[in-house]
């Protein structure tokens, strides 16, 4: 039988090989994608009836990149909608699409669907195996051990045409590949499926923690998709540890767990364990009274070797707190990917999250890179506000130190699709570039897996201000927002300055309207599970935004060029806003 170590060597050997030949592998990947999907409606539109198989790699790549346009989700949306409505002719892929994933972001204020195929789940398994293999070089773990994994599957639903829709992680947790991953990596999640797919953040987290403690001596590492969740889970633990202790002592389950399937599944796993309960009580009392919860993880999970989750990008604000709970345990930053495609693997798991970059996996998709230059000169080639862009280049031509926006051509029917992420090439792993994640373009509000742009915010505020003017004699004169990542759970705060009189009831309604008007699926699912708290509307006194402008202009130039930032983390601005807040409302949506 294959051992885990041999499996690790195989998968690393495979990756070293494809990295070494990354440029050639990219050409082959493009060829495979085009051969598999030759004749689909979208490609016929741009490539006509060319015979892909007869072309050499160079001609094929040149033809593809000169004839097929670079697009955003909005351009492919009509095709995806037709698939969602049940059309079965080959539109984007020859393989019939039966499942759609909800990617982050929106298109024209609607949720963004992208096709999901078996290939998507297989690449997830492959990258998980690969990163487990690299991790094991630095932090070997015991075979057959457990992972305290804070993972949450959302709900799935059907489109008009009968296709299943859910997040990519939801599909993955329900797939064969998820089971295979546990078996091949010989590490098993503490919680059963009924907990993972429970759909209520508080109840799932409670059970993850309870089972994590029940199996504490076997836990080899702690993980989640994004580190926000780990931080939320442990700050929740600070409040409810006594309840968990009582459950462990008696082999019982708190009445806060009301979901019958979850209750049943957890109760069949736990047994009364008074000695474990008194040990936890002793440790937690010390942590609470003397240590401010510093080092909570190694104190309660003494065999844990590391903590793994995405810690880069919008997760950086949570690093301090995570380090506090980790108390010296290594933080291993997880891989880089999106619903559209996995992108890169962390081949240096020993590096701190701030220094991590991701080696592009050249078999997963065909990658192109739009060079980006931070704006200086207005008259340049093509621009998109924040950056000046140049023509996209293939992987073989990327340069060290250059920033790029990623463009993907995937096995799932996305062709030259702008992902919106800005990355920097910080090195090479053999022949494949290592990318450090800079940020998602245009993203302003994010706490967890949610991603909202200025346009999304504007749309949301427009909707609510219409409601305000219809129901009162008041209007919104200016606004801004802030993602409060310190609160537990984190939530969006929107500041309004209004002219005229508005009753509290009307403002409450506006607050609720804004909360429901953010339709990015990451937001919706986090709100439903309460891993993001109710949106808060703060009404500031008249003249507040004038004060903000004066303060900013003092620092950054003429008043006629001043634009209110639509989202801020600036403490001076937040202080002015908070000092001027006269009313606060919390949304009652998703209650
Ligand atoms: P989604 O499509 O909802 O799965 O979100 C994918 C997006 O999350 C990517 O396009 C990135 O903006 C962000 N993301 C994913 N992985 C990482 C990572 N390792 N570091 C930073 N940001 C990431």
From TrEMBL:
Swiss-Prot/TrEMBL keywords: Ligase
Boundaries of every GH3 middle domain copy: 359-440
Transmembrane domains' residue ranges: none
GO cellular component entries: cytoplasm
InterPro entries, per the entry: GH3, GH3_C, GH3_M
Protein's UniProt keywords contain Ligase: yes
Residue ranges constituting the GH3 C-terminal domain according to the UniProt record: 455-570
Superkingdom of the organism of origin: Eukaryota
Protein name, as recorded: GH3 family
Annotated organism of origin: Arabidopsis suecica
């Amino acid at each position: 039988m294959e051992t885990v170590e041999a499996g690790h060597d195989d998968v690393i050997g495979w990756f070293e090989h494809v990295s070494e030949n990354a440029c050639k592998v990219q050409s082959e990947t493009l060829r495979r994608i085009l051969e598999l999907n030759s004749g689909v409606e979208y490609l016929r539109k741009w490539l006509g009836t060319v015979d892909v198989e007869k072309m050499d790699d160079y001609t094929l790549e040149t033809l593809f990149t000169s004839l097929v346009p670079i697009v955003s989700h909005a351009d492919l949306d009509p095709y995806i909608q037709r698939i969602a409505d049940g059309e079965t002719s080959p539109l984007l892929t020859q393989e019939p699409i039966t499942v759609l994933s909800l990617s982050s972001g929106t298109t024209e204020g609607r949720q963004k669907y992208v096709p999901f195929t078996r290939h998507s789940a297989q690449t997830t398994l492959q990258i998980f195996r690969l990163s487990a293999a690299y991790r094991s070089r630095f932090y070997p773990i015991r075979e057959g051990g457990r992972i305290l994994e804070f993972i949450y599957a959302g709900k799935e639903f059907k489109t008009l045409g009968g296709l299943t829709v859910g997040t990519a992680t939801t599909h993955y947790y329900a797939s064969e590949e998820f089971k295979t991953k546990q078996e091949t990596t010989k590490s098993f999640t503490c919680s059963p499926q009924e907990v993972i797919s429970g759909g209520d953040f508080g109840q799932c987290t409670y059970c993850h923690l309870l089972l994590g403690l029940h199996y504490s001596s076997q836990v080899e590492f702690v993980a989640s998709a994004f580190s926000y969740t780990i931080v939320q889970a442990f700050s929740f633990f600070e409040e409810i540890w006594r309840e968990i202790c009582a459950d462990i002592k008696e082999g019982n389950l708190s009445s806060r767990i009301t979901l019958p399937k979850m209750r049943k599944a957890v109760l069949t796993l736990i047994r009364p364990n008074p000695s474990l309960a008194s040990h936890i009580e002793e440790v937690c009392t010390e942590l609470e009274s003397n240590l401010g919860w510093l080092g909570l993880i190694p104190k309660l999970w003494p065999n844990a070797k590391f903590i793994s989750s995405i810690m880069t990008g919008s997760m950086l604000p949570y690093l301090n707190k995570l380090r506090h709970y980790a108390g010296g345990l290594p933080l291993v930053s997880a891989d880089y990917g999106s619903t559209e495609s996995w992108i890169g693997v962390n081949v240096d798991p020993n590096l701190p999250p701030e220094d991590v970059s991701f080696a592009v996996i050249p078999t997963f998709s065909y990658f192109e890179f739009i060079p980006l230059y931070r704006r200086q000169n207005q008259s340049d080639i093509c621009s998109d506000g924040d950056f000046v862009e140049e023509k996209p280049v293939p992987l073989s031509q990327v340069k060290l130190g250059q920033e790029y926006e990623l463009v993907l051509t995937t096995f799932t029917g996305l062709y030259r699709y702008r992902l919106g992420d800005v990355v920097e090439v910080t090195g090479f792993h053999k022949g494949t570039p290592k990318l450090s994640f800079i940020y998602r373009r245009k993203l302003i509000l994010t706490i967890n897996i949610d991603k909202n742009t200025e346009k999304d915010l504007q749309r949301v505020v427009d909707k609510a201000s219409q409601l305000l003017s219809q129901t009162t004699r008041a209007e919104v004169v200016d606004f801004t927002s802030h993602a409060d990542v310190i609160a537990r759970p984190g939530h969006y705060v929107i500041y309004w300055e209004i002219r005229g009189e508005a009753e509290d009831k009307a403002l409450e309604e506006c607050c609720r309207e804004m909360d429901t008007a953010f339709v990015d699926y990451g937001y919706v699912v986090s709100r439903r599970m309460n891993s993001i708290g109710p949106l808060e509307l703060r009404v500031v006194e008249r003249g507040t935004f004038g004060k903000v402008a004066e303060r900013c202009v003092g620092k950054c130039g003429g008043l006629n060029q001043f634009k209110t930032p639509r989202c801020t983390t600036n403490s001076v601005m937040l202080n002015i806003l908070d000092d001027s807040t006269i009313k606060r409302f919390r949304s009652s949506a998703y209650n």
